[in-house]
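Researcher: First entry.
Model:
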Amino acid sequence: MNLFGHKANQLARSFTKKLNEKISPLGLYASQWGIILYLYEKKQCTQIELSQYLGVEAPTITRTLARMEEMGWVIREAGNDKRERHIKLTEKACDMFPQWYQAANNIEIEAINDIDKDELEIFNNILEKMRKNLD
């Protein structure tokens, strides 16, 4: 039986579990890591953009960002209208980013151990095609 979605979900759960083991001692959780990574690359975005990127409902993003704001990782600022909020990382989060990134990267290295470059390229292409098929 080829249940590719189930296998992908199990892989994601394994990554999430390992990531939480490595970054929770650093004050961050896997659900927050995606936000940190996106903001680090983009510098700033709206909550709507973040919600769409992560494929998460707006109320979930709002709650997560509120927790992250309390922890001093993000700043939420008013946008062009009352409903729009711009989010960016704090200096504290930017200072912690290299440690979080290293922890996440170590898990990636562990996961791709003994998989050659060509196989990884094929795997990445397949993942992209599957994601596009579902969008």
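Researcher: Second entry.
Model:
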Amino acid sequence: MKKDKRGHELDFLKDGPWDELYVLTKYWKSDLQFYKDDLRFLKHLTEKYFIWLTKPDSLQLVKDLKDGLFRLTEKSKDLLLKVDKHLIQLGYLVEDPNREDAGVIVTEHEHLEEEMASFLISFRKNRKEVFAITEHIIDSEELANILKT
């Protein structure tokens, strides 16, 4: 019997329950839309509050941070497209559980689940970096004094 990365048995996917997979995938879509908004906020944060930077090492940290945010934003867009397509396929399976392409859809679902998990790990790591770097830069550039005025 096939198992996912956490050791859970995936045999239940063989014949559905398609409606439950559909609901789960809708949650993924909602999460991705939230992450997209959060990434937009983090990008805004880096652009608005780091314009006063003067130290070269601070500038490089922010450049690397922006590059990471860009990559995550592109990944979230890609995942959102894949999830939308997958929702349509699952909708067809809910309507007709005996479709011939059910096995392919199950495989896609498993792959999407892995991509979502990987994205979430990267997202959380990047978010922690944004706040850690923000704190470091505010301290090292004395931006706190500038922001108070």
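Model: Note on the second entry: Residues 56-95 form the longest helix (40 residues).
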